[in-house]
Design goal:
With 82 residues, the protein is an alpha+beta fold. It has helices at residues 23-30, 55-65, and strands at residues 11-15, 36-42, 47-52, 69-70, 73-74, 76-79. The strands form 2 sheets. It has a 4-stranded antiparallel beta sheet with strand order 2-3-1-6, with helices on one face. A two-stranded antiparallel ribbon has the order 4-5. β4 (69-70) and β5 form a beta hairpin. The longest helix is centred in the C-terminal third of the chain and has 11 residues, at 55-65.
Length: 82
């Protein structure tokens, strides 16, 4: 199933992150949205996850951050596959 058709989830999947971005950088970016719980990074893979307390808050964060330019790269934000 293509990413754009994934059903909403409380957890966002973050891809194409800049090499120099760490957990603190991502927390600053995603905690500005209501319901933020935590971010996790997959070391060496330029990807991570942002978790929210409910799907509504995750949807809002996804809509505002998908395609955002961060550190010279456009990040891709989708819902986590279940």
């Amino acid at each position: 199933m293509p990413d754009e058709y994934l059903p909403p989830s409380k957890t966002l999947f973050l891809r194409d992150l800049p090499d120099n971005y760490n957990k603190d950088h991502l927390a600053i970016m995603f905690k500005r949205f209501a319901g933020f719980k935590e971010v996790r990074i997959v070391p060496g893979r330029n990807m991570g996850f942002a978790e929210y307390d409910d799907e509504t808050n995750a949807i809002a964060a996804k809509e505002q951050t998908n395609g955002m330019e961060v550190g010279g790269k456009n990040i891709k934000v989708t819902f986590q596959r279940q």
